[in-house]
Write a structure and sequence with these properties.
It is built from 6 helices and 4 strands; from the N terminus they run βαβααααββα. The chain is of the alpha+beta class. The chain has a 4-stranded mixed sheet, with helices on one face. The longest helix has 12 residues.
Amino acid sequence: MLKVYGIKNCDSVRKALKFFDEYGIGYEFVDFRRTPADCAKIDAWLETADIDTLFNARSTAYRTRGLKSLGLDARGKRDWLCKENLLIKRPVVEKENRVIIGFNQTLYEGEFLS
């Protein structure tokens, strides 16, 4: 079964959950606000995903914390993801031994319907 991480009021998360529901694909939803992803989980995601894909530099959290001015490197981004899950691009979908980050209809169709 898939694990989908995100927050309920995120448009991309809602689109992903709707996609899974429409196609009868089972999943477990993990809300970052109730169950934050710890550093071990983030490190596991980074084994198969790129930090610049996982780190959402377009998020409200990124802008309100003024992180652009810090010029974060990969380690700095990872450290911020550990302490502020709202900087994670959503949704994060765990499928077997890899992760799919964000929602893209075409990618999802190829990944989950074939």
